[in-house]
Design goal:
The protein is mainly α. About 65% of the residues lie in helices and about 10% in strands. Mean pLDDT is about 85; it is low at about 1-10.
């Protein structure tokens, strides 16, 4: 879209249109959102997912949680924005981009940790402590992310049609409840069940708390989601509906 067309779209508001009608169109901000989506996904999994933290809750006491909760839910918020603004097809491309990035991270972590250290380097033990389970965490994340994000995007797109584009909060929160639920049910047992320092009860407790906190994050960030979605729709000039979209996760096109 030219700058003139973009200015007109910003003045007149977004136009409701089927996703198929803009299949080959280039959008201004899509690439930036995809890059942010993949970056947050990688960093939250390699840095935050392996650490179990604890806070003291009133009337409850110590409550453990995974440190990745602080940042990982932002990827689901971005997934909601991508589906809402650009449609399921483009969100699907972002999911596959994230899948490929996570897969490469698994391969790289296994290879780098396995390389024999130089005799003068003393950091191998610390390196293995930090990245030694990265392959397991990332493998769990690949499976959970793939299933959770596609469920999130599918629910988001279908609810948009059912609500006729109204009540954005119902589909951002509703899709997160489903998507994050599937993600957590897959990720935590695969990543931590039987791992050193984790009991079955702790895995279940963290799973439930993470799911609840992720949904709570979505609720808290709803005003931000509204602002970002509104801005992008005005700037891109369209409001995309997936009325005739093939929702198979294995299609490459939009």
């Amino acid at each position: 879209m030219s700058d003139t067309a973009g200015s007109m779209a910003a003045n007149t508001g977004p136009v409701a249109i089927d996703a198929g009608a803009v299949a080959g169109r280039q959008f201004r901000y899509f690439d930036f959102l995809m890059a942010a989506f993949v970056t947050i996904l990688l960093l939250s999994n390699i840095i935050g997912a392996g650490k179990r933290s604890v806070i003291d809750l009133p009337w409850i006491g110590p409550w453990p949680f995974g440190a990745g909760i602080l940042f990982f839910p932002v990827s689901y918020v971005l997934g909601d924005v991508l589906t809402e603004v650009y449609g399921y097809g483009r969100a699907r491309r972002c999911v596959w981009a994230g899948f490929g990035a996570l897969l490469f991270m698994v391969i790289m972590s296994v290879v780098v940790v396995a390389l024999p250290p130089d005799s003068g380097w003393t950091g191998q033990a610390a390196y293995e402590a930090v990245f030694g389970q990265a392959w397991r965490i990332a493998t769990a994340s690949i499976i959970a992310f793939w299933a959770g994000e596609f469920a999130n995007s599918f629910v988001m797109a279908r609810m948009k049609i059912l609500t006729r584009g109204r009540h954005l909060w119902t589909r951002t929160i509703g899709s997160t409840i489903i998507g994050e639920g599937i993600d957590s049910l897959i990720f935590y047992p695969i990543a931590f069940l039987g791992a050193v320092g984790w009991t079955g009860g702790q895995v279940m407790q963290v799973l439930l708390s993470q799911w609840a906190l992720k949904v709570a994050w979505e609720v808290v960030l709803t005003p931000v989601t509204y602002a970002v979605v509104g801005f992008l729709k005005r700037r891109e000039g369209v409001d995309i509906f997936d009325t005739a979209t093939d929702f198979s996760p294995f299609r490459a096109n939009v």
